[in-house]
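Progress against Task 2.4 (sequence-to-structure conversion) is shown through the following example record, which the project officer requested during the mid-term review.
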Amino acid sequence: MATASEWLDGARLRTLPAAVAPVLVGTGIAAHLDAAVWWKAALALIVAVGLQIGVNYANDYSDGIRGTDDDRVGPQRLVGSGRARPDAVKAAAFGSFAAAACAGLLLAATTAWWLVAVGVVCIAAAWYYTGGKKPYGYAGLGELMVFVFFGLVAVAGTTFVQTGTAAGLGAALVGGVGVGALACAILVANNLRDIAGDTAVGKRTLAVRIGDERTRVLFLSLVLAAGMALVALAAQTSPWALLGGLYIVPATMAVAKVGRGATGPALIGVLQRTGISELLWGLGVFVGLTLR
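Structure tokens generated for the chain above:
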């Protein structure tokens, strides 16, 4: 039986910057428009965190029953290690999705009911990343979907539920490009680490498809794209948004390690630094636009 600590590890809390950052950015943009609604921002955060933890457990379950996690480079997973029953991990995934759905329903009821459809699509995307007969994560589409849902949709959605209008949508999409690029960079680093293992089990991630060298170039490109998006966001909102530029400190260390050819467990630190980079990007923008 898995311990409470192992279940907590299974939630992969280190991935939460990918959920927190877009809510910070979306709320910062709403605050810049003097339209921040803090209780709605809190509900948006519950939605994002619930989806992130849910997809983490869902990946643990789906990869585990396929045998993808039998020989991992990174931390052991609940199902793959045999520490938890697959049905228990699946229940944890859907429990997290349910928490996100409840918060999302409250937002829809107080903003616009069509947001329910957006929520359904988000949950479906989270499950079918590695779930179902033809998971899109096994076809090299993971980065695209992360960019869309944990970048564009998350930031624009957070801004919209607070403003209730299309005001700030342009800035929200630019902000979504920034955090989405860094969220993708986290996944790229993860898949770079797992190229050998994923190839062996037939998991055709983008890193497997384009190879080691191009994956490293892609990682650098995503980090640079986040910087360009930050400059564009500051131009649309306030120069104070450039506080998000603090992300470059851990990002530079991550890029250096990837550029030097780090492989296997050596890339775990890259994942952590990239997650911190995304959180700093979002936090800097939030502080800059809220306390301008």
